[in-house]
Amino acid sequence: MCTLVQCLPWLSGARLHGAGSTVVQRVHSDTRTLAAGDLFVPLRGERFDAHDFLAQAQARGAVAALCELGAAERLLAAGLPGLLVPDTRLALAELASGWRRQFSLPLIAVTGSNGKTTVTQMLAAILQAWKPQASLATQGNLNNDIGLPLTLLRLRAQHEIAVLELGMNHP
């Protein structure tokens, strides 16, 4: 996918921590889905702070992490290089935006009150029949400010079109 140094200009107020030449293959915000070569993006929730799982991410194969500035010591303790940012949720969106700009392909954006997932799945099925490896689509119901960036970060050179679903859960 890219190196940490290549990601740096896409992120507002980011600082490099450790080896900038670290190559990231995929991006995940859930330690349960991590694999070797992944960038872990720990997000804060109402009941948890995923920065607490940096050591677990490293054990699952993460090669780097995108952490909030205040988590530098935890990143160091986990033995991971990374990028330090003011807000990981915002940085995830910025990372996806920067990655998206590397591709010149049409996007179909599906929004609205009802039927988004059905329409997205129908369009994805049509495109899959047309060219099986050429399309990317939102999987499941990952249509919020976390799921949409994670979908964009799955874009690869073989993709010729993407179908993205966006739901609104806050202003």
Beta strand %: 15-25%
Distance between the termini: 32 Å
Q: What structural class is derived from the secondary structure elements?
A: alpha/beta
Shape: globular
CATH level-4 homologous superfamily of the largest domain: MurE/MurF, N-terminal domain
Would you list the SSEs in sequence order as H and E? EHEEEEHEHEHEHEHE
Question: Number of DSSP helices?
Answer: 6
What value does the average pLDDT take? 94
> What is the CATH topology of the largest domain?
Udp-n-acetylmuramoylalanyl-d-glutamate--2,6- Diaminopimelate Ligase, Chain: A, domain 1
Main pleated sheet: 5 strands, mixed
Give the C-level CATH assignment of the largest domain: Alpha Beta
What is the topology, as strand order, of the major beta sheet?
Answer: 2-7-6-5-4
Summarize the structure.
Helix content is 30%, strand content 20%.
Task: Summarize the structure in words.
The chain has 171 residues and is of the alpha/beta class. It has 2 domains: 2-100, Udp-n-acetylmuramoylalanyl-d-glutamate--2,6- Diaminopimelate Ligase, Chain: A, domain 1 (3-Layer(aba) Sandwich), CATH 3.40.1390.10; 107-165, no CATH class. Helices cover 30% and strands 20% of the residues. It contains 6 helices and 10 strands, in the order βαββββαβαβαβαβαβ. A 5-stranded mixed beta sheet has the order 2-7-6-5-4. The longest helix is centred in the last third of the chain and has 15 residues, at 116-130. It is globular. The two termini are 32 Å apart. The mean pLDDT is 94.
